[in-house]
Amino acid sequence: MSNNPRDQYDLQNVISSNRFAGLWRMLTGYRLNYISATVSMAFAATAKTVTYLMLAYFIDKVLGKNFDLRQLALMALMFIGLAALEGLSTFNAGRLANFTAESVTRRLRNYLYDHIQRLTFSYHDRTQTGELIERTTSDVDALRRFYAEQAIGISRIFMLFLINFIAIFSLNKTLALASIIVVPIILVTSIFFFKRVTKAYEAYQEQEAILSTTLQENLSGVRVVKAFARQDYERQKFENDNWEKFVRGRRLLLMHSLFWPVSDIACGFQMLAGFFLGAMMTINGTITVGTYIAYAGLVVWLIWPMRNLGRLIVQTSTGLVSFGRVMKIIEQVREPLETAKYRPLGVLLGELKFEGVSFEYNQNAPVLKDISFECQPGEKLALMGSTGSGKTTIVNLLPRFYEYTGGHIYLDGVELKDYPRKYLRNQIGIVEQEPFLFSRTLRENITYGVERDVEQEEIEAAARAASIHEVIESFPDGYNTLVGERGVTLSGGQKQRVAIARTILKNPRILILDDSTSSVDTETEAVIRAALEQLMKNRTTFIIAHRVQSVMNANLILVLDKGQVIQKGTHEVLLEQEGVYRQIYDIQTRIEVELEHEITWEESGERLISSHGKSTQLEIMSEPVLVDTAFEK
Ligand SMILES: Nc1ncnc2c1ncn2[C@@H]1O[C@H](COP(=O)(O)OP(=O)(O)OP(=O)(O)O)[C@@H](O)[C@H]1O
Ligand SMILES: [Mg+2]
After folding, report:
1. If you measure from the C-alpha of residue 425 to the centroid of ligand 1, how many angstroms do you get, rounded to a whole number?
2. CA 500 – CA 177 distance, rounded (Å)
3. Are 601 and 494 contained in the same domain?
């Protein structure tokens, strides 16, 4: 990370309705380099032109006169000097332009990476990852090419055109004017193609983004693809998308290749006409042979910019399109982390009050309706309800991942919206329903949210509390084991427990456990629950669970249905009521009783065998046949 003040430039300033203005602003901090590149380019162009003018002088004035060795040597030296100047200047211009292009896009890439992670949850909900990857890679690269090649190329073209025109003009006015007749034709065709190429390139980039998304989704969902044996379907889908990209790419190239012959033919005619006119004028004696030879050299470099101007105008469109696509991200408003009306001092107590809270992810599709409840600091609150009833949504409001649209939430007596998000997120710990672990070591994953230095003992204590320490120790690399693609693959339950350890270590004031023990067996759940019991002491805790066992000792249980609280109270109170809670309780206890029954039945079977002295419990498990024979007796 560089501390260069140029890197601190806020790219929000680049936003502009005029793309050229935006591109110019993007150069902030590097403009001097870029201008130097242009000046170098001018030197190179001038050196080239002067070479031809000297050639005219050499032929007319030196050659044919008395052979003066000193003058000849001087001329030779000057030619060499000019060639060296041209070479060096061209090299320097290229170096500076490339340096600028790389620097500006490096800054842009860093900015985009940071910016994207600061955008709101709802932006990420509606934006595809592939699309974002495409814009931060392919489009940024198009911008790099724009600065390294196209923008500087255009300066070079103007410089060459101007200097060579002036030179020819100084040789002969008629010849000069006759040599640029084709310019309007080139300009008109360039603009004609510019518009079409812009459209074609836009379509091409869009399709490329679709392809990236398909690829990215297929890779992250490769298990589902395999499990459903959908490889053929996915291949077909990819091939279709890829074919569409091919079609659009072909259209784009067709535009380019249609443009080329048009401009080439026009320029070819222009050159021939110039040569012809020049030759006629030499024969008539209007101009000298030296002038004609210089003209023949100069006119090539007058036509060259015209030919390339069109190409560059057309290519510039790609830079402009990519600039627009990148701008779409930069324009997005960040989620303010620090700004807030209220400046909390110290830590939260954890007193909460929901007053008629409503919320919708998308307009006119309410997900939460009129939610009201309150709890004291340190209390345990449980949320139950069918899937999709809004449990996760309620807890997502607390760290201000989303803003509630109606009602009030008071945290320690202050409206939640007045708290800075960063503060809330530091004070609230969530074990998410589908925890995500980074492809880093287990240690880095567990210490992820902690900003201070942590001792190994602390990490291990957290891991023990989450019942994951033994599992980690069993890996050859222990806490240094890499997770994910390059390391071990953890089971769902193990991941959940690593996530629990991560939250334990964070030591939050409000703890949210979103279905946190759903992927572990009942026995492990009991162990974790006992450990969490410790952790829940003195801090407000939200437990989302489906098992009555997990919620029965909460201070308040909310039963949700379709975004509304349908029952509210303690376990005892809710059991008294006719309602969903009792139904769930009845079903779950019935299942448990049945299970218990089965277990005792098996146990009695075991006893039967043991009493016969023929088998042990271990054998029952490994060889069920023995059980059968035992029963037959
Ligand atoms: N990011 C989102 N954008 C739009 N709608 C969403 C979003 N997240 C959830 N929803 C919708 O909100 C409703 C409530 O979802 P929520 O995740 O809160 O359910 P839940 O009670 O946690 O369910 P589960 O027990 O399955 O986890 C669902 O209808 C869901 O489709
Ligand atoms: Mg949920």
Report:
1. 21
2. 80
3. no
Instruction: Locate the ligand 1 atom nearest the alpha carbon of residue 563 and give its number.
Output: 14
Ligand 2 centre from 483 Cα, in Å?
Answer: 25
How many angstroms is it from 538 CA to the middle of ligand 2?
A: 25
Within 8 A by CB and 6+ apart from 367, the residues are 359, 360, 361, 390, 393, 563
Q: Is the domain of 444 the same as that of 381?
A: yes
* Domain shared by 417 and 497, yes or no: yes
d(CA 575, CA 378): 24
293, 385: one domain: no
Number of domains in the chain: 3
Pocket residue to mutate for ligand 1, from 391, 516, 547, most atoms within 8 A of Cβ? 391
Does residue 335 fall inside a structural domain?
Answer: no
Same domain, residue pair 169 and 278: yes
Give the pLDDT confidence score for residue 623 in this predicted structure. Answer: 35
More confident residue, 433 or 93: 93
Pocket of ligand 1 (CB under 6 A): 125, 361-362, 367, 385, 387-393, 433
Q: Whole-angstrom Cα distance, residue 391 to residue 395?
A: 7
Out of 389, 394, 561, 562, give the residue to mutate to test ligand 1, the one with the largest number of ligand atoms within 8 Å of its CB: 389
pLDDT at residue 411 is higher than 90: yes
Residues 145 and 223 in one domain: yes
Q: How far is the CA of 429 from the centre of ligand 2 (A)?
A: 16
The range of the structural domain enclosing residue 185 comes to 5-330
600, two tokens: 């005792």
pLDDT of residue 621: 36
- For residue 390, how far is its CA from the centre of ligand 1 (angstroms)? 6
Question: Is 519 inside any structural domain?
Answer: yes
336 domain residue, yes or no: no
CB 186 within 8 A of CB 309: yes
In this predicted structure, the answer to whether residue 625 has a pLDDT above a threshold of 60 is no
pLDDT at position 619, please? 35
**Which of the listed residues 126, 127, 358, 361 should we mutate to test ligand 1's pocket, taking the one with most ligand atoms within 8 A of CB?**
361
pLDDT at residue number 67: 67
User: Does some domain include residue 341?
Assistant: no
Sheet of 414-415: strand order equals: 366-375, 352-360, 406-411, 414-415
Same structural domain, 308 and 243: yes
Regarding whether 618 and 556 lie in a shared domain, the answer is: no
Rounded to the nearest whole angstrom, what is the distance from the C-alpha of residue 352 to the centroid of ligand 1? Answer: 22
